[in-house]
Amino acid sequence: MTISAILVCICSCSEGGKVIPRSKMAKIYADMFIVDAWITAAPYENRKLADSTRVYEPIFNDYGYTTEDYRASVSYYLQDPDRFSRILKKTGQILKLEIDGLQHGALIEHLRTDLGEISRKGNTLVTSFP
């Protein structure tokens, strides 16, 4: 289920709840997009078991909010498309930083592996030198 479909579903049944601040909404959306990507990449039999309410509820809880708070927030922010757009833009920035960090971490690990190999070769040369 895509985020836009979830938004429509959630907004249509919005009840009570408090409005989540924009900065936290952006972080929540980033986490939701990551979970969506994980679910999409999962084997089909696991994907069909993913219930979005159960998948997202722990994300809301991590930030101290409930599904009702999320629904109220989406309903509130959709009333101001510019504000909602800024939240999504911030979400994109958060995700880019995550991707850059993962790429940076992979680069560092690659360099460590290369340096380890160079070190091993260097030790072999030193110990075999007459």
Structure description:
The protein has helices at 3-12, 22-41, 44-47, 52-62, 67-77, 81-128. The longest helix has 48 residues, at 81-128. The protein is elongated, with a radius of gyration of 22 Å. The protein is mainly alpha-helical. The N and C termini lie far apart (67 Å). The protein contains six helices and no strands. 14% of the residues are buried.
Task: Let me know the average pLDDT.
Answer: 76
Helix amount:
over 70%
| Count of alpha and pi helical runs | 6
Largest sheet: none
| Backbone shape | elongated
Secondary-structure element pattern, one letter each: HHHHHH
Rg for CA atoms: 22 Å
Amino-to-carboxy terminus distance? 67 Å
State the gist of this model.
The protein is mostly helical and 130 residues long.
Keyphrases for this structure?
single chain, 130 residues, mainly alpha, 6 helices, 80% helix, 0% strand, disordered C terminus
Q: Which helices and strands appear, and what pairs or packs with what?
A:
Blueprint: H1 3-12, H2 22-41, H3 44-47, H4 52-62, H5 67-77, H6 81-128
